Amino acid sequence: MVGTALIHSLAVTEKRGSFKNWTVLLAISAFSLSLLGTFLVRSGVLTSVHAFATDPRRGIFILIFLVAVIGTSLALFAWRAPKVGLGGRFGLVSRESFLLTNNVLLVVACATVLLGTLYPLLIDALGVGKISVGPPYFNAVFVPVMAPVLFLMGVAPFARWKEASIPEITRTVRWAMIAAAVVAIALPLVYGQWSALTALGILLAAWVTFTTLTAYVQRVQHTRAGQSFLSAAFKQPRSFIGMCVAHFGIAVFVVGVTMVSSFQDEKDVKMAPGDSVDVAGYSFKFNGVREIQGPNYVAAQGDFDLTVDGKFRLKMKPEKRNYASSGMPMTEAAIDAGFLRDVYVSLGEPIDRDRPEAEWAVRVYYKPFVDWIWGGCVLMALGGLLAMLDRRYRAKSRASSTVQTPAGSQHA
User: Fold this and answer.
1) What residues contact residue 109 under an 8 Å CB cut-off, 6+ apart?
2) Number of structural domains the chain divides into
3) Do both 272 and 354 map to the same domain?
4) Gap between the Cα atoms of 308 and 306, Å rounded
5) What is the pTM for the complete model shown?
6) Does residue 210 sit in the same domain as residue 274?
7) Backbone phi, psi, residue 301, to 5°
8) Where are the alpha helices (DSSP H) in 43-134?
9) pLDDT one-digit tens code per residue, 177-222
10) Residue 195 gets which letter from DSSP?
11) Which of 206, 354, 383, 404 lies at a 20 to 30 A Cα distance from 50?
12) Which domain holds residue 180?
């Protein structure tokens, strides 16, 4: 989130020469937080899937490096910051002010996540007790901060630099807002359960989508200069295309998170061969378990028939593996992935270990739009990559090299 704020702050610094100190501070913070995350998972302070190489000595080295980097960077910043100009002035309603507000909100959102991560560790270190911070905390503090960010994400591209007009922006985005409201009302109803939070998530995602499309179409119309629309659309700067792709990725991500949190369903059941369980219109029939030999493990493999509306869809074969090297049991879920939903089935433990062919604990899941979460992340990364490949950055690099080369040869 701090890195995202940095990218947007750099855009203002490049265009208007403003936010220079803020941009440097964000750069220091982004790098420092990445080091802090590395320290937390590599030192063993936090239990994480990324902590595959925990070593206290490595953690101490990272901590020393972290302190040195933060201390040196902030000292240099304090020394040089007063000598950096403030840049151009801008009005209360302008693209600069919207981007600055977004930056502040992103930093606050990052601070809430950092607080939720470090506070339990601090309480434990002080010996006060042990607490855990889970989804209720993050839902309560993170969502209210990010909602205005998504709203401003749709507004900022239509605001002028230095000074903008609210009526002008409203006229430009009114159809996007109407379309987003229609989608927010209709989509939850299609899934049979309407709630305010679900509608809010869909509204914000649709708002970002429609405003991004509006901004792209508007720019193409202004720059086509006699070309066909498609030709002009593909000739837009990569930085602008990257921005649109990244914003669209955020919308896709928000849809995925909203739909999963609102409409996911799961059941933990005890099943014997021949039993069936229904979840969200999908029926799982348990046919039994057999033992299989893997390359380096022995597994109990379940056999399930997945049917939809009475029609057989596919066989699902989850496994409960025991690896010879570690002796640790691992659960390998069977997944039927789809564009609009994923369904999972996983084996727990046999109810009677002496009769593994009999009843088993089974968990089945239905998660709508879960792949959209990962798809949104991919689109955001792709958008950032496209923006980095913009030709003006390469032109600046070549220009800098051209300026430096004669000076160097003359000095030689």
Assistant:
1) 1, 142, 145, 146, 149
2) 2
3) yes
4) 7
5) 0.82
6) no
7) -105, 120
8) 56-80, 95-125
9) 999 999 999 888 888 788 888 899 999 999 999 999 999 988 888 8
10) -
11) 383
12) 165-236
